[in-house]
Prior knowledge:
The complex is a heterodimer of chains A (314) and B (384). Chain A is an alpha/beta fold and 314 residues long. In chain A, 26% of the residues lie in helices and 26% in strands. In chain A, the strands form 3 sheets. Chain A has a 7-stranded mixed sheet, sandwiched between helices. In chain A, strands 10, 11, 12, 13, 14 and 15 form a 6-stranded antiparallel sheet that branches. Chain A starts with 5 loop residues before the first strand and ends in a 14-residue tail after the last helix. By secondary structure, chain B is α/β, with parallel strands linked by helices. Chain B has a 7-stranded mixed sheet, with helices on both faces. A 5-stranded parallel sheet of chain B has the order 2-1-3-4-5, sandwiched between helices. In chain B, α1 runs parallel beside α10. The longest helix of chain B has 17 residues, at 280-296. The two termini of chain B are 32 Å apart. The chains are: A alpha/beta (314), B alpha/beta (384). Chain A binds chain B through residues 127, 144-151, 168, 171, 175-176, 178-179, 182, 184, 186-189, and chain B through 50-51, 54-55, 58, 62, 79-80, 82-84, 86-89, 103-104, 106-108.
Amino acid sequence: MEKIKTLLLCCSRFAFPAMQQLAYTGILGGVIIPEQHTKLIEETKESLGVSNIPVVTVNKKNFEEIATRFIADNNINLGLVVTFNFTLPSTLFAKPTKGFYNVHPGPLPQYRGSDPIFHQIKNREKYSAVTIHQLDEGLDSGAIILQEKIGLLQTDTYGLLEVKLARLAQKLVETLTKIIAMGFNPPSRPQEESKAICYPKQEAKEFTIDWNKMKADAIIALTNACNPYNNGAATLLNQKLIRFLHIEKTESAAPHQMQPGTILFIDADNLEIATLAGEHINVKFLYTEEGYLTPASLLALGVTKGLCFKPTVF
Amino acid sequence: MTIGLLFPRSDVYPLIGAEFLEGIKTQLALTENANKINFISESIGFGGVEKEVYGKTEKLLMMDNVDLLIAFMDEKILELIKPLILAANRICIIVNTGANYPINWVAQPNIIHLTLQHSFLCAVIGSTAAQGQKHKEAAVCSSFYDCGYMHLLSMVNEFVNGSGVIKHNYINKQTLKEELVFPELFQFLNDNKSVKTLLSIYDSKIASAFYKQLKDWSQAGTLEVYVSPMMLEEKALLSHQDGFPFSVAGYVPWHSSAPGNANTTFISTYQKNYQKVPSMFSLLGWETGLILQAIIDTKDVNYRNAEEVIVGLLSKKIASPRGEMILDEETLYYLTPAIRCFSTPGSNELKREYGIDLKSEWEEFSAKNIEGNIAGWTNTYLCY
Lengths: 314, 384
């Protein structure tokens, strides 16, 4: 077996299982995290415990210099990016002799961009995937080494899907490092550019419920995509910002003819709202400035049947 | 069409590779398609040495540039060769007993699975065991070798999900070179009279010794013994034609006595060519041949376009010796009917119900992903 020493670049908990896998198998040479992710830095140091594996913090200005020096000083021969804020220059990703790879929480080339988890849930995909690809000059455009699909359930929130994908990423990283350690050069397949879609970083308006355009399933998907990310899908009630965290579709309810967004029923456990095409949704949990609430709290605040939710304004 | 073939080796089943290949060739020889196919074969030993398996797969896909890969190997080692299959964009037919199953059931592009469904059939009998109102407490009986595969997990999980309770785990650590004895199990059964259910997973050789010892136990008549498919193989039952004092129940994927033209053709053709009764490995080979025929017979198909090949296969029902074989779109596993086997206490006849449709049970089984860490043997089941 060939000796591997890996540098891991990361900025989210999505990287944790893969990081632990690398540390457990003794091939993690160091971790670089952007300095603004203070909580992640703390958790990473705690997770690596007494292993003496260095955790280095960087900012946009000093990242390239620090990473280049770290690779040289620590005999790093493999690089892995598992979600990271900064673009890697080609001078950097060419340094490790066994390659630099990106672990992407989505299928490629269909879900390029910085937050594929949000968009896959919002788009109501049936499957998600983790892709490991070579780094190149483009964004998530390098040749694919490994890609594995998993089911995306209608009930999967951003947080749940992230955990599932992180476990899958751990398995794929294990496979990749095994192949490299055996002395093989992992084979790759170029991405089909004709199928490529790149999703830019979301704007605030993408988190809001548009009652006049979105049917019940789309509202539920947006809510799941925003939980816990953004603390839920945003809407206004009497000019007050409310974010829905968990919604169920009311399948058996009779069709209504109310304006979408109108409260049809409210009690301690249910907040039923009219949506497009005569459908209903039932909000179970929500978030406001006052904290995480159930419909009972809204009821206590005087929210009644007939009031109407509106889209937030940007 | 050039086909790469990775075949296994086994000390306990020395003919595993040969009979598999015989099955493929006998099937293909029935049509003119045999002339259209060249095989390049590589042995991957017991299937557990990663460097050997990866190296041989790389040779077939990248250097020999085969059109299609057939790999008789287990699920675990498959993980390692997935990048090669993806990069080559070739169809790969993974063949094994089904003693292991994937952590993630979602169909992956390019990979089709043909198995004897051992884990699944263990799950079905585990569920049956839990349905009995009398004996909800069970002892698990397995060997050090057999317990390293997920068929045991399947049987136990379904039993526990049906509110069964496991009171004892008995793992026999003897090797096949010794005379097999099970004293700790009988000690437990003597001390715990309420436990009458045995969930048993052994391969055919150990199974025969296990049955013999159970038969000699004074209270054998009170036991309900639920067994894995290998325990219902002819080799396991050969010395027990006089039947059992206890009840036995389990499923097998195939039996030579199964009715139907496809099975008759399989057995007679194979016997004519090789002057012996086909084994389950010959069956897997024969069925692999049927899949190859289905691919070749698809009009205008490009063998190298994995997506196109799979679309073609999804629409075809194959007449297997096991019954109608269909490709499950969700998992890309081939499904076939199974045979339910059972005998009542004291009966000298093992009854077989043929053609049991387990599609809904399969959907339930394959909807569950495994949680947590999995340990176990890395080599292909029965290859040691």
